[in-house]
Write a structure and sequence with these properties.
6 strands, six-stranded antiparallel beta sheet, single chain, 175 residues, alpha+beta, 6 helices
């Protein structure tokens, strides 16, 4: 089996806020552009800019076809910050955020097209996959099965897995 979190297996959708992000060269311009459009914005809410949807795996381990493990990620507008977040999901649908990166102005400036947004999400999902494969040290199927078992047992070696992401898990810097 080839890589699991490749572009072909991930369906990234860019929303209306994604177009505002594309037109912006930093936070100030993003909020200026946001105020000019008809999107209702409340700082207390979280808004999806772009999302990978759910990437499901380990369906073969469960008797119920509705049970599986999943990974999802996306770019969000959250409390006036643009964030990239990764979630994992257990077989019964319970989700956990395992990673959050707050964009700095330069990262906003580097996004010029919808494809840039998709590539941003896809590249970090591929880094996550590299972390899973290197942590569990097996083939794709075996590594994701072990990852899924650790999700179910809530015993994830997150430090080992997340060390392969090239962006920092920096939300604590903004608290």
């Amino acid at each position: 089996m080839e890589k699991f979190l490749e572009d072909d297996n991930v369906n990234i959708q860019v929303g209306q806020l994604g177009n505002i992000l594309i037109q912006s060269n930093g936070y100030e311009e993003f909020y200026s552009n946001l105020s000019k459009c008809n999107i209702e914005f409340n700082e207390a809410k979280t808004y999806e800019i772009a999302s990978s949807g759910f990437v499901d795996f380990n369906q073969h381990l469960y008797e119920d076809i509705n049970h599986m493990n999943s990974i999802s990620s996306g770019i969000y507008l959250e409390k006036s910050l643009i964030t990239y977040r990764i979630f994992i999901w257990g077989s019964k649908g319970e989700g956990f955020e395992i990673f959050k990166h707050v964009f700095i102005g330069e990262e906003i400036s580097n996004i010029k097209t919808e494809n840039d947004i998709k590539q941003y999400i896809a590249s970090h999902l591929q880094e996550l996959e590299d972390g899973i494969l290197k942590t569990y040290n097996g083939c794709i199927k075996e590594s994701f099965e072990k990852f899924g078992m650790d999700i179910e047992n809530r015993m994830l070696p997150l430090q080992s897995i997340l060390q392969f992401l090239t962006i920092p898990n920096n939300m604590n810097d903004f608290r």
